[in-house]
Amino acid sequence: MNLNAVYVMWLREMKRFSRSKSRMVSMLIMPLLFLGGLGFGFSKMTIPGIEGIAYLQFLVPGIVGMGMLFSSTGSGVSVLWDKEFGFLKEIMVAPVSRTSIVLGRIAGGATISLTQGILLILISTLLGFRTTITGFLIGLIFMALITTTFIGLGLILASRMKDMQGFQLIINFVVMPLFFLSGALYPIENLPAPIRILSYANPLTYGLDGLRGALIGISRFHPLTNLTIMITLSVAMVSLGAFLFDKSDNA
Amino acid sequence: MKAINTTNLTRKFGNFTAVDKISFQVKQGELFGLLGPNGAGKTTIINMLSTLLKITSGQAQVNGFDVQTQKNKVRESIGIVFQEPALDGRLTGKENLDFHARMYGINKEERRKRIKKVLKLVKLTDKADELVDNYSGGMKRRLEIARGLIQKPKVLFLDEPTLGLDAQTRRSIWEYIKKLNQKNKVTIILTTHYMEEADFLCNRIAIIDHGKIIALDKPSNLKNFLGGDAITLELKKPSNKLKQQLEQKKWVKSIKQHNSKITLTTENGEKHIPEIIRTAEKQKTQITSVNLRKPSLEDVFLHFTGKTIRSQEAGQTEKMKRMRMRRVGHG
């Protein structure tokens, strides 16, 4: 492990991100459109399982989770961009451990995703969302676990792909189903039993449930259950992602 | 200690053997060339020596370190310029160099000094703060050479350093390479499929085809292998008097006449031309033209492989063009 290398990788990500205005804007616009479109449109509806709570309150943690799911998976898969533009070779030929390269990438991706999540929560409060300071701070823990888990997933997917051509496929067949099955938009009890099983196998379900529990005090599972599952999953995903990254030919 | 030492180095991709039991040594301070058509296995050799690609079988040491078991030691002691650009276009030239220097653990003060120095060396000081996306192909290549020097490598790998550059830029890059090798005593391994590049730069050349070394020697020796220079004389009137007299000379290796044209082979042809002219004048034979042709590496390649490097290339270039198109389409 080489902390210096972790820092360099992180620094590069920050520089690249700060120069990409379009990436910054689109990271907030899509979740906010969902939030506005669904939050206001369904505000008068009664959804079984969340009677008595404003739909916006239920929706905000889901949308924060959604935004972070997309950006985190994306930054894991972005290894493939470096491969496509040749820069991966420059990284791989440097005398630093592969672990520090992976950790640097995760640190960069997580910083961006967390900033996105925090900004979304702040903007939501302007739209009428209410939470507590303590809730927000505990929520940060779950947000950190969500982003780590899905950057790990992104790395795993990237190691199975040759180039960026499969990226849209990943969005359609992996990221979107994870989003819809996570209980971001409605309680998962409302899903038919066979589909609900898929929800239970979805890491985002626990991450979101934990985040929702922290932010608005309503959760399906016990907070500690969510926490334990998310810590285990994030460690597993990152380790597997790092292992596969090291194993794949990077020349 | 040798800069490079390989024994039966082999790499397979599935059933295809890209590099087939290659053994060679490179001395410290040498400028060594791997010459061959695209797809011959040159880049695969470089990728294995620089620890990017696993070895299928055989062994290789760089600066005395094993490329399989001492990867980090190898990485610390080499610099590399890849065939395709390996720069981050969203960073400036200086930031690319800074990223590199930090990855090699060079401290702040030293970083500042070395970056300034290498930028000056490749004449990019003025463009240092511009995004690399706005650089021309030649500037990118120069920046990469500069980057390869920051960590003061003992061995520098250059994979097709002048591919796709115009003649003027190519010349100036050749000058940098020579200077580096002679002044800074850096061992340089370069791959190329340009004959004149290998001939101009390298102390020794390994000709590679289909993953094997088919010849390895100094450029001059490789050329002498073909029997030396060819001199063609055109006579005003067909007559075999001159041929008869030249046949007696010890330095003539072979001589043929076809009507008024005499062709002979000899080593150091340019030194024998005056003698030929004197002989002809004495016997009143009039020569209308003299042509001296030195064998090129192209001829050497043809001799060893039975085909020219260019005819091999046509197919490859097409493939590369198609790949580029695909990239642009999706980029």
Give your account of this protein's structure:
- The complex is a heterodimer of chains A (251) and B (331).
- Chain A has 251 residues and is mainly alpha-helical.
- Chain A has one domain.
- Helices cover 76% and strands 0% of the residues of chain A.
- Chain A has 11 helices and no strands.
- In chain A, helix 3 (55-77) crosses helix 10 and helix 6 crosses helix 7.
- Chain B is an alpha/beta fold and 331 residues long.
- Chain B has 3 domains: 4-222, P-loop containing nucleotide triphosphate hydrolases (Rossmann fold, 3-Layer(aba) Sandwich); 227-293, Alpha-Beta Plaits, CATH 3.30.70; 297-330, no CATH class.
- Chain B has 12 helices and 14 strands.
- Chain B has helices spanning 42-49, 71-77, 93-103, 108-121, 137-149, 167-183, 195-201, 219-224, 241-247, 269-282, 297-305, 309-330; strands at residues 4-13, 16-26, 31-35, 57-62, 65-66, 78-81, 155-159, 187-192, 204-209, 212-217, 229-235, 254-258, 261-266, 287-293.
- Chain B has a 6-stranded mixed beta sheet with strand order 6-7-8-3-9-10, sandwiched between helices. In chain B, strands 2-1-4-5 form a 4-stranded antiparallel beta sheet, with helices on one face.
- In chain B, a hairpin with a 2-residue loop joins strand 9 (204-209) and strand 10.
- Chain B is elongated, with a radius of gyration of 24 Å.
- Residues 327-331 of chain B have low confidence and may be disordered.
- The A-B interface holds A 2, 4-5, 7-8, 11-12, 15-16, 19-20, 84-97, 164-165, 249-251 and B 47, 50-54, 72-73, 75-76, 78, 80, 82, 84-91, 95, 99-100, 102-105, 147, 327, 330-331.
Show the helix and strand layout:
The complex is a heterodimer of chains A (251) and B (331).
Chain A (H helix, E strand, L loop, with lengths): L2 H17 L1 H21 L13 H23 L1 H6 L2 H6 L5 H29 L6 H27 L7 H14 L12 H8 L2 H14 L6 H25 L4
Helix pairs in contact in A: 1-6, 2-3, 2-6, 3-6, 3-7, 3-8, 3-10, 6-7, 7-10, 7-11, 10-11
Chain B lengths: L3 E10 L2 E11 L4 E5 L6 H8 L7 E6 L2 E2 L4 H7 E4 L11 H11 L4 H14 L15 H13 L5 E5 L7 H17 L3 E6 L2 H7 L2 E6 L2 E6 L1 H6 L4 E7 L5 H7 L6 E5 L2 E6 L2 H14 L4 E7 L3 H9 L3 H22 L1
Parallel strand pairs in B: 3-8, 3-9, 6-7, 7-8
Antiparallel strand pairs in B: 1-2, 1-4, 4-5, 9-10, 11-13, 11-14, 12-13
Helix pairs in contact in B: 3-4, 4-5
